[in-house]
Amino acid sequence: MLSWIIKNQLAEVLIGRANAQSFMPTQASEIAKSVDSLYSFLLIISLIACVIVIGGMIYFAYKYRRRSANDKTAYISHDTRLEILWSVIPLVIFLFVFAWGWIIYHDMRTMPKEALEIQVIGRQWAWVAEYKNGVQSNVLVVPVKRDIRLVLSSPDVIHSFYVPSFRIKQDVVPGRYTSLWFRAEVMGEFHVFCAEFCGTSHSGMITKLRVVSQTDFDKWLIEEADSSLLPPVEYGKKLFTTKTCASCHFEDQPGVKIGPTMKGLFGLENHEMVDGTTVTADENYLRESILASQAKVVKGFGPRSAMPAFQGQLSEKELSAIIEYIKSIK
Ligand code: CUA
Fold this sequence. Notes:
It is built from seven helices and twelve strands. It is of the alpha+beta class. It has three domains: 2-60 and 78-109, no CATH class; 116-226, Sandwich (Immunoglobulin-like); 230-328, Orthogonal Bundle (Cytochrome Bc1 Complex, Chain D, domain 2), CATH 1.10.760.10. The protein has a five-stranded mixed beta sheet, with no helix packed on it. A five-stranded mixed beta sheet has the order 4-10-9-6-7. Strands 11-12 form a two-stranded antiparallel ribbon. Helix 2 packs antiparallel against helix 3, helix 5 (232-242) packs across helix 7 (316-328) and helix 6 (283-291) crosses helix 7. The longest helix is centred in the first third of the chain and has 34 residues, at 30-63. It is elongated, with a radius of gyration of 28 Å. It starts with a helix and ends with a helix. Dinuclear copper ion (CUA) binds at residues 122, 125, 159, 194, 196-198, 202, 205.
């Protein structure tokens, strides 16, 4: 089994397309192949070293075991040639690995000049992609075989943008921009994770990266751009996702999620708060709860709710569309 793995991995390294497909996510970007080749090389070198060291220990322990009470331990000093050899060989291997790693890292960090730029905002707890024509989307849609540069930012805490299939990961830091580039080689849908613990719903801070043809991409971008002309309820429904409400509030099912459900909320009388007071869930209550979420916290969700305040994050048009949408969830 082990020899089979080593043989197959070695063969792949040798023909220059090391591919640990059996236990790694799909290689969907150019850089993924280089990363995997280096990874496989490290794995094989470590396995060989492990076999030599552990095997040698077992062999010598057996060969030079004490056979009788008269056995004397031989006087062992040192061997300069051997010592030089086992210092120089690993040194050469490590320098080689360093150089290989540096080349890949340099590729990863050198932003291509003619890249399609997309702003990606990571916030508690969702990803939002902003395109040059103003389109905002929770799903990151990109054209295939084209250099893409992401400019990452965060309005709250540190997140980390991670696409395993592309072998790329970059911290998203509040107060500054970080960037990342990739070139998707295959079409399809890939997972995007947040790889930096960022609060209650960190584990839910996931989205999809959809790689489509250039034609489909252009079409999608135009269709999405038209969505702000939608009727308020539909526009609000879209915003409910892109503005991250949906990651904590179920639209229809009660319970389970972090925030209270929106189902049947509008018009609710005697809506109980954590401090024992009750309110009527009218437009002004919804408005206040979105803009200053800490003002009134629903019973069972406090005492300090985890919801970020949206003051300054929404235009009046967006705010009323979201409220219209919440009103429509019966
Ligand atoms: Cu964002 Cu973890």
